[in-house]
Amino acid sequence: MENHRHVVDVEAVPEGSAGGxxxxxxxxxxxxxxxxxxxxxxxxxxxxxxSAEFLLAGVLPAVAADIDVSLAAAGGLIxxxxxxxxxxxxxxxxxxxxxxRRTALVLTQVIFAACVAAGLVIGSYPxxxxxxxxxxxxxxxxxxxxxxTAVSLVTPDRAARASGVVVSGLSLAMIxxxxxxxxxxxxxxxxxxxxxxxALTLVAALAVAVAMPRTAGGPExxxxxxxxxxxxxxxxxxxxxxxxSTASYMITFNYLAELLDRVTGIPDAWIALVLMLFGVGAxxxxxxxxxVSDRWPHHALVAGAAGIAVCSAxxxxxxxxxxxxxxxxxxxxxxxxxxxxxxxxRVFTIASDAPTLAGASVVSAFQLGISLVPLPAGLALNxxxxxxxxxxxxxxxxxxxxxxxxxxxAAGRPRPAAAARPS
Length: 423
Fold this sequence. Notes:
423 residues, Growth Hormone, Chain: A, 0% strand, globular, transmembrane helix, MFS_trans_sf, MFS_dom
């Protein structure tokens, strides 16, 4: 089914329904190379908001000391945000189904900034816990609507590329936002980085309100149709691939600092720079995946999963050799994110007639893959296994992603007509 020209999905509806007819102005011509400004505004917005997700881990000891709680309790603030992201997208997608998308985007940005600011002003642990959870809900709502909006701004043959650009905001948050906020926090106090997040989010909200093309809800948007779309088995195969692939690279990344310190023996001063290489690789992977996935989405999915498996296994085997591990961290980022545009492309192709709830659900699957990482890693480490075992778990999860992606591809092939019986 995949070849050098755009292939219409067997479950797709007539042209004009993708993303909801009437949800956006006419997309740019397919021949144009540049994506619309709105796509880049969404990427910047995701960078501003996503920085809050990576910032807290870097200043967690300072937060725990300032609000007088244990480090484990302070870690609950990370969990609260993650839970909000997991459960926030689909309900908001349903509630905002008939809203103009620009309104939904700006509203979630303002609520997110208000929640972060409220937690900083009140400053108590319960307040931070509640506001982090609420900020996660708003962040999930924005992420879900942003992905759908980006696809509606372009022609179908550039949907994966547009999704990749939007998600690249998240990788930039990983590369720049989190580390820069942490650096600011150590110089002016841990709250300084979060105030910067508030400011950037409000700037992004203003830019979206002013410069984002005016959009409106689709004709007769239907919650029933959105829910009916979620019954398609192929969507759940994509959700499963999202969860497995995300967990496969994040489980290695989350314990990479420990591995670099205890096994590889890299000096503490250099570990942060090595971790940034993962973010650089993620940005490169999104750029490559965005270009490839519109034509060959399943090739990108399988190649990305295979790359994660190989890189994870090599990190485990060569963990004592810095000259091998450092470039492998970069390549793990490339492989991990090269398949993300393909994931979004598949979701918006399969659910082209009702994409909002499906788009929100894939965001939840992405965050769930991140949130479940501590479970298998904790089981292995508590059983006495070396930290390199975590990379092996990542390799196994990546291998499991491949048959899921291939099953989704097989399910999308039209069934051949039954052979005529001989008379």
